[in-house]
Each structure stands twice: as structure tokens, then as C-alpha cells.
Amino acid sequence: FADELPEQFVEVGIAEQNCVGIAAGLANAGFRPFVTVPACFYSMRSAEQVKVDIAYSKSNVKIIGISGGVSYGALGTSHHSLQDIATMCAIPNLTVILPADAWQTKSMTRVLAKEDGPVYVRMGRGAVADIYGPDSMTGLEIPFQTGKAITLRTGSDLLLVGTGETVALVWQAAALLAERGVQATVLDMATLKPFDETAVLKAAQVCPAVISVEEHSLHGGLGDQIAGLLSQQRPRLMKKIALPDEDLVTGSSAEVFRHYGLTKENIAQQAEILITRSKGGE
After folding, report:
1. Per-residue pLDDT tens digits for 169-185
2. Number of other residues whose CB lies within 10 A of the CB of residue 28
3. How confident is the model at residue 282 (pLDDT cuts 50, 70, 90)?
């Protein structure tokens, strides 16, 4: 980007709070800045600037948090961003998005380049499975819409909800369950704020059990949003699969996922346990 459009590129260096302030100033001068930054630092170190300079002021800045979740791998807990969704969703006026793959990210970027308003986007670091596109695991080409969940498959036995890189996991888990005679609805909750309550309630209406899967702390993320909604409007048995409230083990993203059960096999296993409970079993 810097080579092709040098007049549209500003390098701020390791000065995260300054970068957010500069972006807010550019937005208020009529530009459309995209701040591309490590999610772990910009969601915590620059939280006040994001809140005051961007969100409270409704400045048209898109914060693109890269290397989110545990994707920094061996750099460990100082570089994990496991509280960013909880933090950013609690800030007024701020849209929060987690794209699932490259195809959806491209579609999302086109949308965000035209839409006004402050946005926080979190994505990973390495290559991920293709969810969307003609040669993807789903074969679906569904354009991104801010605030809209995407239904990837339907079933009446269970609702599986993923966001960001966990969407591939819930899709794969649903495929495993289908081989065992269990039909699951799969939702891609690409936007966590505004939250598509209608899609979740509609799916939960026919599904007696719900599982959320996220690369985030067990507290304050996708699972808590779903649980809060269902407890008030459509109570269901629910399991949250997320990262625990502790200092995580150090390793590659895939190793951390396996250690804490963010795998298609564990999701399928937990689904079968939950379905048994929903039918009155132990």
C-alpha cells in the first residue's frame, strides 16, 4: 500500500495513542483513515483515545486490529488480545466486526470504505480456511452487511455460533455432527455490535441447545451476548467455548486452540453432551 499510494500512507511507529489521535484529526478534516495496528495494543493501550477521540466524537475512523486473539503465538500473553471485544462493545457509537476469512474481509473493506462512523475490526495473523467464495468449504458468496449475521446451514437439533476465525470451526463441527445424524444451524456472527438479535432468536426458536465458540476471554464476548439475550427472551441450554480466565499457555495459535478445546472435535463432542441434556439425559 505504501509503495503504490505513498501520499495516502502515514507511518506513526510505536506510538499507539498518538496514531489514534492523528486518525481522528484526519477524519475530522474530511479524510477516511484506516488505522492498521496490532489488536492487543490498540484495544488496551489506546482504549481511551478510541473511546474519546473516535467513538464519543463519532469520528469516521476504522481501527483494523491485526494479529488478534492468540495469533501472535509464541510472544505470549502480553501480545494476546482476549479482552478487546468486551472492551470495544462497551464503548458507545463503536461498531465491532470480526471477519471470518479473506473473501469476507475484502467484502467488508468495500463496505467500510463507503460507510461513515467509527469501527473496530479484529482479524488474525496467519492464513485461515476459506469460508466464502466459489472454491470455499461452503461455496457461498454472501456479501458482508454491517450488523447482519449470516446463516451458513440450518438444522433443528442445535445452534452453533462462531465469529471471526472460529466460524470455520463451527462449520466443520456441524459437518461432523451431520455424519452422526445431528443437524445444526450455523451462524456467522461477523458483527458483534450492533448485534443481530433477530437472527439468534429466530435460530434458537427451533433449536433446544446453543453453543458459542470464540477466540476471546470467557467473559464479555460473543457467548455472554448470546446468553444475555436468550436468558431474557428465549431461555435455552447453552455452552460457551472460549479461552479461560487465566494466563494462557504459550504456543502457536493452533497449539493454543487445541489445548483449550477450540477444535471441531471438541465442539462436536460438547454439542452431543448438550443435546443429550436438552432431552432430559445426564
Report:
1. 999 999 999 999 999 99
2. 14
3. low
The whole model's pTM is what? Answer: 0.95
Q: In this predicted model, what pLDDT tens digit does every residue of 11-44 receive, in sequence order?
A: 998 899 999 999 999 999 999 999 998 999 988 9
**How many other CB atoms are there within 10 angstroms of residue 201's CB atom?**
13
What does the block give as the cell for 57?
A: 466524537
